[in-house]
Amino acid sequence: MNWSRTKTIFIICFLLLDLFLGNQLYDRHKNSQDFDVFPQNNVESNLGKNINIDTVLPEAKKNITVIKGQRMSFVNDTGELLDSLKRLEGPKGHVIQTIEAFDNGTVIQSTLKKPIPIPKKAANQQAALRNYVYKGNEYKYWKTDEKEHTITFVQTFNDSPVFIKERGNSNTLKVFVDNGKITGYRQSYFTFSKAKNALDLISAEKAINNLWEKNELPVSLNPVVKDVELSYLNLIGDATLDKALFFMPSWHVRVKTNEGMKEFFVNATSGLIQTMDDAE
């Protein structure tokens, strides 16, 4: 037997085996990289081909945390309205509204002496209420209910709207309308504080993609995303004076469809879709 020739054959075989294994390892590494970037490519594909965007998508803010909110009391230790509310009522002889407190002072209800016309633009509506509402500059227009004859505003925290599932009198500012004029309102006010740990947020693009993947934005409805904003959302909890509520950062997405305007909340950390119908 020619051992020199046999040795050469073995060396060549081992070299070929090394090349084969090296090629397999390279292919696996490449496929792994392709898999890692697939979700982002999928998001871009969905946004570009299946979802129409008619707004500038905001960047996810940094140092965002869960916030804790607690309803303040509008009355002092003797049960009387705070001085700031008495000033909103107006001086004697020139009273512009009467304000009553209930729910242990955590909710007030106003009746205007002279109803005021409703401005057409939401920003003007908010401006018109500033002279009547406690810290009215901290509220933002949310929605109008033609059937209930109400306009709802939400409180803001660091310029982001704070939404709360309405249960009892937990809503923040509900304005009453009659014959095109504002006749009064019901209000509660939360004091907010941030948690310690900042959260990693998904992007607005990812939130929209989640809606598409869950068939919330079917092509048959011709969905057009009109507005996206980072907000805070609470769906559960007892909104009483001595118990705090916790609000999670959420992407608030408003979409125009063939069936009218729709709104969605997507948890900005988990990506789960939430609605005001959740968690009774």
From TrEMBL:
<dbReference type="InterPro" id="IPR018604">
    <property type="entry name" value="YycI-like"/>
</dbReference>
<dbReference type="GO" id="GO:0016020">
    <property type="term" value="C:membrane"/>
</dbReference>
<protein>
    <submittedName>
        <fullName>Regulatory protein YycI of two-component signal transduction system YycFG</fullName>
    </submittedName>
</protein>
<dbReference type="InterPro" id="IPR042274">
    <property type="entry name" value="YycH/YycI_2"/>
</dbReference>
<dbReference type="Pfam" id="PF09648">
    <property type="entry name" value="YycI"/>
</dbReference>
<feature type="domain" description="Regulatory protein YycH-like">
    <location>
        <begin position="42"/>
        <end position="269"/>
    </location>
</feature>
